[in-house]
Amino acid sequence: MENFKTPAIKKKWLLKFIEVIDELISLLRNKKFYIGIAFLFGGIQLNFVSQTYLHNYMVEGKALPVLSDLILDNLPYWDVDYLYDIFSLVSVFVFIVYVLHKREYNKVPYFLLLCGIFHTIRAIFIVLTPFGNPPLFDGTEGPFNGFSKYELGVYPSGHTGIAYMYFILAKDRRYRLVLLFSVLVIIAALFLSRGHYSIDVLSGIFFAFAIKAYGDKYISGLMINENRRE
Questions:
Q1: Where exactly are the structural domains of the chain?
Q2: Contact predicate 125/58, CB 8 Å
Q3: DSSP string covering 152-202, please?
Q4: DSSP 61
Q5: pLDDT per position in the chain (230 positions), as tens?
Q6: Tally of CA atoms within 13 A in the half-sphere of 41 that contains its CB
Q7: Residues 105, 195: contact at Cβ < 8 Å?
């Protein structure tokens, strides 16, 4: 009996594998995928431009104001800045696994677009009203260095916002729990290492939620291909 079942099981997995490959090829042929990619990388690049502008602003001898903060002023300082970079990468990895596991390839262009919009808005806001980094912040150590040459621009927090975006985009409870844990670790590490003011962290959450809500109402229909095979 076992010998009869094995070929059938192998055939079933082979058909699933072929179907997944077919969906991935369809994604790569979808122009919406490249629109999403363009928004994401454009937003990330715009952040680098904004941070370079702030760096040059300070090189010219101008100062960015340093603020007091109710939460930071009452927390101990712990040099755990590497944690928010590590768990940002964890969030990316977990969300990619979620998309592959749940085969939500039809939503990938939309996911990329929302993250690109967040990066773009952040790039604008950090230069509109530029603040200096919180007191005691000494830069991110280790191999990550905050993902950027210049760790400038605080409002809103990109680490928090993007990680929270992954959390609200995921629908499976198990993945959401892991993503929520990552968000909480990122927030705690940012507070303890003085990586962001509390308003930056909270605004990152609200910005991500607002972008997702706006996207669901006005953009999802244009970016999500609903004819995915079930």
A1: 35-223
A2: no
A3: ---SS-HHHHHHHHHHHH---HHHHHHHHHHHHHHHHHHHHTT-S-HHHHH
A4: T
A5: 455 456 666 666 665 656 667 677 777 778 888 999 999 999 999 999 998 888 888 888 878 888 899 999 999 999 888 899 899 999 999 999 999 899 888 899 999 999 999 999 999 999 998 888 898 887 776 555 555 666 788 899 999 999 999 999 999 999 999 999 999 999 999 999 998 999 999 999 999 999 999 999 998 887 876 654 44
A6: 6
A7: no
Residues with Cβ within 8 Å of 198's Cβ and at least 6 positions away in sequence, in order, are: 69, 70, 71, 72, 191
**CA 84, 90, 93: angle at the middle one, nearest 5?**
145
| Distance spanning both ends of the chain, measured CA to CA | 30
Q: CA–CA distance from 65 to each of 132, 134, 138, 191, 207 (Å)?
A: 5, 9, 16, 19, 23
Q: Which two tokens stand for residue 124?
A: 């604008």
CA 83, CA 194: separation in Å to the nearest integer? 12
Q: Report yes or no: 43 and 119 within 8 Å, Cβ to Cβ.
A: yes
Enter the pTM of the model.
Answer: 0.86
Contact 88, 159 (CB under 8 A): yes
Instruction: Provide the strand spans (E) within 85-144.
Output: none
